[in-house]
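Chain X:
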Amino acid sequence: QVQLQESGGGSVQSGGSLKLSCAASGYTVYCMAWFRQVPGKEREELGFIDRDGNIRYAASVKGRFTISQGVDKKTLDLQMNSLKPEDTAMYYCAASAWRLCQRRADLPYWGQGTQVTVSS
């Protein structure tokens, strides 16, 4: 099993920044990712890092959001800059203990989520 704990959510004005953190415990994780979800919409992948350190970003956040993994590969931060009201959502961290993980479907472990609210 893998347990994930997100932190760092809160409220910020448009144009501001927030940094979310995700801490993993339990099994060794090989992939980690950040997602967000707005009520009534599908969960959106924001950034994904695989076991080799390759990172991909969603087009909606590329250039504004940056994910970074701790040296021990047990933490994953999400630095969010130039925030917009449409970034308001519940943000989730996800992870996999499978070495060949590459996709969202390969991520069985999820955190409880942390709310981010961006006001105009």
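Chain Y:
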Amino acid sequence: VQLVESGGGSVQAGGSLRLSCTSSGDTGSAPSMGWFRQAPGKEREGVAAIDSRGGTAYADSATGRFTISQDNAKNTLYLQMNSLKPEDTAMYYCAASSRLTGLSLTPGTYNYWGQGTQVTVS
């Protein structure tokens, strides 16, 4: 499974961004997907996750501001981010898991990763 993120950029506090992650390969083997982020000097953390039934989970920091969704016809995962804060600044990664059938915000449960897209909020 190959994952390619896009949509990052620089935005002022209070603004919005939509990240996209296009997947290819044997995508059916990795039905659970998620968004993660990593700021300089910090560990990678889960932001949002979605399973094959459309169930979702969010980190407390993302609840109410971020929305994860997917378009199966386009093999694309999205993360709509609203009301962005400077503390949201990080490299954002898309991930997929062939080890899960449900939801997880734990990076170690994912075995496919994209290269990341930078989000900077000032």
